[in-house]
Amino acid sequence: MDKAGIVDILESIAELLELKGENPFKIRAYSNGARALESLEKDLGEVIAAGELGEVKGIGKALVDKITTLYETDELEFYTKLKASVPEGMIALLDIPGLGPKKIKKLHDTLGVESIESLQAACESGKVAELDGFGKKTADNILRGIANREAYAARHRWWDAHEAAVPILEGLRKLKEVEQAEAGGSLRRGMETVGDLDFLVASTTPGPIMDWFTSQEGVREVTAKGETKSSVRLDDGLQADLRVVPPEQFFFALHHFTGSKDHNVRMRQRALERGLSLSEWGLFKTQNDERRTQKKDGEEEKKPRQVNPHGDEKPVVDAKSEADIFKALDLRYIPPELREDRGEIEAAEQGELPELVTDEDIFGVFHNHTTASDGRATLDEMTQAAQDLGFEYLGIADHSKASFQASGLDEERLAAQIEKIRALNDSGKFTCRVLAGSEVDILKDGTLDFDDGVLKTLDYCVVSVHNAFSLSEDDMTKRIIKALEHEHVTMLGHLTGRLLLQREPYAVNIPKVIDAALANGKIIELNASPWRLDMDWRFWKKAAERGLLCAINPDAHATDQLKYYRAGVLTARKGWLTKDNILNCRKLASVLEYLGLG
DNA sequence: GCCGTTTTCGGCCCGACTGTTTTCAGTCG
Question: Could you say which residues 369-408 of protein chain A have a Cβ atom less than 7 A away from any atom in strand B?
Answer without folding.
Answer: none
